[in-house]
Amino acid sequence: MIQEIEIDIGQLSADLVQLHQLRVKLKQDKDFMETSIKELNNTWEGAAHDEFVKGFDIDCKSIGEMLITLSQFLESLEYAKDEYSFI
Question: Would you say residue 1 lies in a domain?
Answer without folding.
Answer: no
